[in-house]
Every structure is written in structure tokens, then in C-alpha cells.
Amino acid sequence: MDAKGKAFRYGNNVDTDVIIPARYLNTTDPKELASHCMEDIDANFVKQVKAGDIMVANHNFGCGSSREHAPLAIKAAGISCVIASSFARIFYRNSINIGLAILECEEAVQGIKAGDTVSVDFSSGTIKNESTGESWSAQPFPPFIQKMIKADGLINYLRKEARA
Fold first, then answer.
1. Predicted confidence (pLDDT) per residue in 39-72, tens digit
2. In whole angstroms, what is the distance from residue 83 CA to residue 58 CA?
3. Rounded to an integer, what distance in angstroms lies between the CA atom of residue 117 and that of residue 83?
4. Looking at CB atoms within 10 Å, which of 16, 23, 77, 148 has the fewest?
């Protein structure tokens, strides 16, 4: 359950209205949400993002409303992991619920620049800047949450567990 991709960098207090503007909340279609992800602060994001890329941000990422549309838009755009100094609590939980991997690591955020190639080992919490060779340790999720993310979210995880 590892990730590797190009880093997209953002600052402090990136709120859910910036991640997916409210004018697009009349849909829950992941592809439609992805097509508008980050457009108000990074018009080129959806044109440049590739499956597996990684989003990096400073403090309080995902603040604002409690909508699940925000992590869903990020995930559907192709982002495999968001690394931030800190997350808004409701965004943090919504991300787990929909299967978007997220890690908090201040040192990694300070050491990763836009365009760097970053790899993440989710089982150990190791984040490596492949462009510079630097690496850092984040607190990995416990195994059951790793399974939830691997299952593509809470609902799929519960369905899989019910069949087991």
C-alpha cells in the first residue's frame, strides 16, 4: 500500500471551499468533483496531476465545512496521499472514511518542494523525498485503518469484513 508521485505544494489553512468550491457541491460524482479540485487556488492542478501524485500542505489542511466532497475530490483527481503539518479533524476522519491516505509530518512538509518526487511507505510511516534523498518518519496508521484505506474506504472495508 505504498505511494510514489510528484508533489503538489500548498500553504496553511487550505479549506474545503478551496479544495472543492461550493458551486460544485450539487454532485457526488467523483469524476466531476475531481475536474474542479483546487481550481480556485491552482488552476493547473487538474491538468497536471497524475494518478499516484502526492499533495503536501502546511498547517490546518482541510479546515472549513465537514463535507466529504473535499477528500473525495482529491482522491478522484489521482492523489494517493496527502502529507500535511496538521489536518482539520473532520477532514482527517472523512479522508479515512473514503480511503484517502493522509499523514502528518512537519519535517517532511518543510523538506518537500513542489515538483519533487516523493514516496511513502504506509506500513512504516516512512516518507522519502526521492529528489533529494531525505527521509522522515510519520506515525503510521494502525493496521485496521491501513486495511480500511486499502479497501477504498470504510464502507468497502465493512462489506469485506462482513463477507469474511
1. 999 999 999 999 999 999 999 999 998 889 999 9
2. 9
3. 13
4. 23
